Amino acid sequence: xxxxxxxxxxxxxxxxxxxxxxxxxxxxxxxxxxxxxxxxxxxxxxxxxxxxxxxxxxxxxxxxxxxxxxxxxxxxxxxxxxxxxxxxxxxxxxxxxxxxxxxxxxxxxxxxxxxxxxxxxxxxxxxxxxxxxxxxxxxxxxxxxxxxxxxxxxxxxxxxxxxxxxxxxxxxxxxxxxxxxxxxxxxxxxxxxxxxxxxxxxxxxxxxxxxxxxxxxxxxxxxxxxxxxxxxxxxxxxxxxxxxxxxxxxxxxxxxxxxx
Length: 260
Description:
By secondary structure, the chain is mostly helical. The protein has helices at about 25-45, 50-60, 65-70, 75-100, 100-115, 120-125, 135-155, 165-175, 185-205, 220-230, 235-240, 245-255. The longest helix has 26 residues, at about 75-100.
């Protein structure tokens, strides 16, 4: 599998931002997009409690501009989640439309999802945003449906292993998105993640010239993952996230922040 699908994530993200005002000025839209990309990366690297001043600095805007767009931390966290979901949905639809077959489209989508860091930022935000939010639920559905279409299409034409489930694709991206321990630079870590993804994609391929041992259970479907996501008990969410929840930080964030 070629790594030609790897693209600069910030330079090529042209998906329409979720919740964006339809007549937003070009400069305001650019500032908003820069804030969301910067917030996504900082929350992925440092967690949802990272200082918002760092988000503004990385986005190249003043802290006042950030607060004019997002008056408190919860509103920014929610906007980041909506934006990431909108971008991966866009990439899945684009891959399906542009690639010659469903397997190549799925491979392209997986590389772009890795670039967009959904596998890191969404687990970090899951305890910080309301799971019953109607717009978020709709965004999750719009992001998952085209991916399931890619899986169904590739299995239908015999290019994807028949025992691969939605959860395999989603959780592979999550595992690869987490940074390696040790002295790996961000750039090197990203390159290795795409290399390792190519290795895994080759293992997803159905081949008539080789025999593949059946995968062990469980094969987690989209419905299985959705059922896990609605768990609201702290211990259940800690198990889902793979890390303890900072309850004090969660309480502070729920109250929002005011600019200094």
